[in-house]
Amino acid sequence: MKIFKYLKSAVLVAIIGLSWSCNNDFLETAPTDALPSDDVFNSIVTAQSALTGAYDQLSTYYFEGMWTTLMSDVMGEDVMINSVDNWNWFVSVYQLNVLPTYTYVENPWGVAYKVIFEANKIIENASLIPDATEEEKEKLEGEAKVIRAYSMLKLIQMYAPAYSADKEVLGILNANKVINYDDEDFPRATVEEIYLQIESDLLSAIDLLPQYTNKGFFDKRAAQAVLARTYLDMEEWEKARDMATEAHKDMELMTINEMYSGFNYRNRETIFTIAYTADDNPIYMSLPSFYWPEAGYSSVRANDEFVKMFTTSDYRSAFFLKEEQIDPDRYLILKFAHNGSVGNAERISIRASEMHLIEAECEAELGNYTDAREALYTVQSARIANVGKSTKSGQELIDEILIERRKELFGEGLRWNDIKRRQQHFKREGDHWARFDFGPEDEDYYRFTLPIPQSEIDTNSKITDNEQNKGY
């Protein structure tokens, strides 16, 4: 596999300070400012620095720092990229019109496997660190396994059909070990094989990790939350419910004032957050740069039909604003603010509200309607004034929960996968300037799966052009 071969001799260390260009040159050579892997695991200090390096790469704007999050929502029906004054950023993504050579396809794949490479080195060497305690070794291994699982889950959601649609189809590379330049490439594994790898990593991590107070690192609760997402994709309703319940246990939801603060810093319901600053990412390559009405690109807008879903008693309706001087035609979004200065922010990646909604969805699918209504009410009562508890059951209750997911979690990088995993009909209405109307039975549904990057096909001896994803 391309990335693993060229990075065989080094684990990247964040404290050295890496910079990324906007092209793919970083895939071609080992960095000159990295520590040799033999030295990295000679002490707990340098090994922990390697772990920090993996987190740093996870948060880069090409991956979870911004791109994959923003892409997930503009590929849906609730938000859009402006058709003008946005320097063409993410337009092809919004139009569901990408090709295997596009940067939106190449870069998330490349960075994700770079993160996975770093995690693999830590997983395979943590137990060998001579001056580390058993607790420190377990912490390193556990966090690295969550990093690997988190990255693989994002990749399989983006580059393969949904598990619920076809778990036997080819997915991504199961890069679960370190390989050297002369080793064989990784072939594409089936969707099911990838999900089983993710499950295995997370179950192991849950046993290895304690609970932390610093939510910028993966802990036991975060591992349970990622596993809840994994089981949700697999439609393992009981397992997803149980993991989501454990993940939100003893957590309070954010207050209205915390919600209005701009989703730019961790709060009481944060399970995991990705922090990035202007030092980590270019100033304008940040989530608030695209969402916030000023100081950045400010090119993401809310669809008018989506805004209509929010009643005046819903506190979240205040996230939407029409401002004549900025955009007289479409709704601005006030959910994601800068933190002090342009380019500084935190992206709350996993929070308790999502876990309650996973619990609600699973209980409804299991026919436990009373429990499902209770879990749904936990979120609704915190967001809507004087709301009553739902009286629905069956598919009507499931639909209500899924609508609540859209309202509560919009802009947080989940919509694209929700459409795919539920095999929902996709229709854009209202003020969208690129419209679609198709379902899983239609040929156009392939658009919800990205192509395998052409650079991977060209350099991986185990993948041929004939194995490219459907539609490309």
Brief descriptors of the model:
single chain, 472 residues, mainly alpha, Serine Threonine Protein Phosphatase 5, Tetratricopeptide repeat, two-stranded antiparallel ribbon, two-stranded antiparallel sheet, 18 helices, globular, disordered N terminus
Task: Describe the overall structure.
The structure is a single chain. This protein is mainly α. The chain has helices spanning 2-6, 37-40, 44-58, 67-74, 91-94, 103-125, 134-159, 191-208, 220-234, 237-248, 256-260, 287-291, 304-307, 352-365, 369-383, 394-409, 415-421, 454-459, and strands at 10-11, 35-36, 79-81, 170-173, 188-190, 270-276, 300-302, 320-323, 327-333, 345-351, 426-427, 437-438. It contains 18 helices and 12 strands. The strands form 6 sheets. The protein has a two-stranded antiparallel sheet with strand order 1-2. It has a domain at 1-189 and 420-472: Serine Threonine Protein Phosphatase 5, Tetratricopeptide repeat (Alpha Horseshoe), CATH 1.25.40.
Radius of gyration: 21 Å
**Strands across the major sheet, in which order?**
1-2
Beta-strand proportion: 5-15%
**CATH architecture field of the domain at 1-189 and 420-472:** Alpha Horseshoe
Please state the average pLDDT score.
91
SSE topology:
Layout: H1 2-6, E1 10-11, E2 35-36, H2 37-40, H3 44-58, H4 67-74, E3 79-81, H5 91-94, H6 103-125, H7 134-159, E4 170-173, E5 188-190, H8 191-208, H9 220-234, H10 237-248, H11 256-260, E6 270-276, H12 287-291, E7 300-302, H13 304-307, E8 320-323, E9 327-333, E10 345-351, H14 352-365, H15 369-383, H16 394-409, H17 415-421, E11 426-427, E12 437-438, H18 454-459
Helix pairs in contact: 3-6, 3-7, 6-7, 7-8, 7-9, 8-9, 9-10, 10-14, 14-15, 14-16, 15-16
